[in-house]
Every structure is written in structure tokens, then in C-alpha cells.
Specification:
about 325 residues; five-stranded mixed beta sheet; four-stranded mixed beta sheet; 13 strands; binds acetyl coenzyme *A
């Protein structure tokens, strides 16, 4: 993993702002979720813009030019358009003309899914340099009249450059999982082939995400715990050796519950959910970048990523930095 980067839009939406939009309070949001504010993209700023900005920072740190990139994978549930892929739009923005490009949809788990796919291409020596991006403009699918969900989400992007380098550090293992029988816990009904956009579908607010919060919460804790333990078992690494644990930043109570169940010390857990809310596929990518840029992880340190999202999907990854 040669370099990481992230980007969040300038505009900040605070809990106080939300108090003026729906029937909620800073106290409710803070105690139930740990979120204080989130970043919201401008009207003319799209997922591809957020992703490209994060990618440029990762490329600069990895000292990689656009021409060197062989493949771009973008994990997102908020593509600029259903097609072409946001990865193709980012390829054009970066001028990475040699790169193949595709999107990947695994909701909040997308960044780990994308890292693992990138790793497979690198291990088989198909590609030398892969750009992995998690990018979301969730504000475009949030129902700003639904207090159950609108307080939870934010916009942003994170990126990583993976390269084939002998004796280099990087992804040691990644675990991925899914359970489609629980697809109804978190979904957006409108806009696909099942329910194309019509005046009625829009009037029924089907083009916004819907969530069963309590069930999502329980499943998140169990899935991230199981995935993290499996990832550590595969690497034969005890949790006490992990320098920094980066869980999906959805809710501080979920982070604390998972941390306790896997036997993590509080000082191992990385938390930035108070600043960004849940940014889905961008969440652990932004957190990884912050952990690196703030010196929280140093060369040779072990990092554990854990994710959970719609699908349901989940995953965990161990990285040697
Ligand atoms: N402000 C004030 N009250 C609210 C708000 C709000 N913003 N939202 C809900 N409430 C009310 C509810 O209406 C309910 O009222 P009632 O008891 O009168 O019906 C009450 O608060 C309690 O609601 P609960 O659902 O019991 O609250 P809970 O403690 O479960 O917290 C939350 C809700 C924060 C949504 C929590 O369940 C959660 O975080 N779930 C997981 C969400 C998640 O991580 N999802 C993302 C997965 S990742 C992805 O793929 C996008």
C-alpha cells in the first residue's frame, strides 16, 4: 500500500443545523450515535469529484503518475449516474488513460471488497499499480425529512494506491461476507429495474435510503466481530498486537460494542464518526488516511479494518503499514 489520501467537501452540517430541519436534538444525536457534524457536497460536486480529489492525494503520496495506473476500482452506492461507472469518470478526471476502470457495490463494506480485488490482481501480476477509491455523496439519497436516517450520513472519499513491490508491506489478509436474506434492513427501492423512476415513485419518496436501525445495529456488531476474529486467526495475530483498529464509522455505540467483544483496548480504536457521520464506502478509507497522516500508525504497525453495510455485507482486513 504505497499511499493513501482522502477528501471531504467544505460545507459542514452540524447537529444544530439538523435541529432546524427535523424534530431532533444535538443531545439525541450525540448520545445515540456520537455524531456531531458531517460534510455535505455542493450541488455541482459529485461522487466522481470527491473520489478524484482523494485519489490525487493518494497518488501524490505514493509518487504515482496518472499514466502508471493500471486499474481503478471505485466502491460506491452513490455513483454519479447508474452508468457509465464513476470509475470511468474518475479515470477521465485524473487522465489515467491506460487504466481499466469499474465500480463495485458492496455498500459500506465496499472499500475492503475493493482492496481485496486489487490485491488479487497484484498477486497474479496482472497489474502493477491499482487505485482503490471509496467515495460517496450520500446526501443525494438521504431523505432530509426522515429524522431516523438523515442525522446519520455524510459525504466524502478515501483512496489508496496498491503496488506490486517485493518485501513491501500491505494487505496481509481480507475477509469478505454477505447475507442477501437481510437485504430489507437497508435499501433504496427506487431507481433500479424493479422500480424505475416515475412521478409516483418520486412522490412516494422511493429514491431515498431506508433503514431498520435497530436490526442493522445488532447485525453490524455480530458481523464485524466475526469478520475481525477470522482475519486475525488467518494471520495468526493476537488482537493485542494491533496498533490501530479502524471500524466502519457508523455509530460510536456500534464501535464500542464491537471493540469490547473482540477484546480491544480503547486506545486501539480509531474514531472520527463525530466529524463525518457514516460515509459508507468512504468511511474506513478516510479513517485510514487520517490515522496515517496524524502519525497514529507508523511504518511496520499492524492495522485492523472492520466493515459492515447494506446487502448485508461485511468484512475485515489486516494491513501491515
Ligand atoms: N432525533 C430524535 N429522535 C429520534 C431520531 C432523531 N434523529 N431518530 C429516531 N428517533 C426516535 C425514534 O422515533 C424512536 O422514538 P419512539 O421510541 O417514540 O418510536 C426513538 O428515537 C428511539 O429509536 P431507536 O430506533 O430505539 O434508537 P436507537 O437507539 O436504536 O438508535 C440508530 C437509532 C442510531 C439508527 C441506531 O439504531 C443505529 O445506529 N443503527 C445502525 C445504523 C447503521 O449503522 N446503519 C448503517 C449500516 S452501513 C451502510 O451500509 C449505509
Amino acid at each position: 500500500m504505497a499511499g493513501v489520501g482522502s477528501y471531504v467537501p467544505a460545507k459542514i452540517l452540524t447537529n444544530a443545523d439538523l435541529e432546524r430541519m427535523v424534530s431532533t436534538s444535538d443531545e439525541w444525536i450525540t448520545t445515540r450515535t456520537g455524531i456531531k457534524e458531517r460534510h455535505i457536497a455542493a450541488k455541482d460536486e459529485f461522487t466522481s469529484d470527491l473520489g478524484a480529489a482523494a485519489a490525487r492525494r493518494a497518488m501524490q503520496r505514493a509518487r504515482v503518475t496518472p499514466e502508471q495506473i493500471d486499474l481503478i476500482i471505485v466502491a460506491t452506492i452513490t455513483p454519479d449516474m447508474p452508468f457509465p461507472s464513476t470509475a470511468c469518470l474518475i479515470q477521465q478526471k485524473l487522465g489515467a488513460h491506460r487504466a481499466a476502470a469499474f465500480d463495485l457495490e458492496a455498500a459500506c463494506s465496499g472499500f475492503i471488497y475493493a482492496l481485496e480485488i486489487a490485491q488479487q490482481f497484484i498477486m497474479t501480476r496482472t497489474y502493477d499499480t491499482v487505485l482503490v477509491i471509496g467515495a460517496e455523496k450520500l446526501s443525494s439519497i438521504v431523505d432530509w425529512k426522515d429524522r431516523n436516517t438523515c442525522v446519520l450520513f455524510g459525504d466524502g472519499a478515501g483512496a489508496a494506491i496498491l503496488q506490486n513491490r517485493p518485501h513491501a508491506h500491505g494487505l496481509l489478509t481480507a475477509v469478505m461476507g454477505a447475507d442477501g436474506s437481510k437485504a430489507d434492513l437497508l435499501f433504496m427501492a427506487g431507481g433500479g429495474s424493479r422500480c424505475p423512476a416515475t412521478a409516483e415513485s418520486v412522490a412516494s419518496r422511493l429514491h431515498y435510503l431506508r433503514m431498520e436501525g435497530k436490526e442493522a445495529f445488532k447485525n453490524a456488531v455480530q458481523a464485524m466481530k466475526t469478520a475481525a476474529q477470522e482475519a486475525l486467526r488467518r494471520c495468526e495475530i493476537d488482537i493485542s498486537r494491533i496498533k490501530c483498529i479502524i471500524p466502519h464509522q457508523a455509530n460510536l455505540r456500534i464501535i464500542d460494542a464491537v471493540g469490547e467483544r473482540i477484546g480491544a483496548r480503547p486506545d486501539q480504536l480509531f474514531v472520527n464518526v463525530h466529524k463525518y457521520g457514516n460515509t459508507s464506502a468512504a468511511s474506513v478509507a478516510i479513517a485510514l488516511d487520517e490515522a496515517v497522516q496524524t502519525g497514529r500508525v507508523q511504518h511496520g504497525d499492524l492495522i485492523l479494518l472492520m466493515v459492515f453495510g447494506a446487502g448485508l455485507t461485511w468484512g475485515a482486513a489486516v494491513i501491515e503499514w
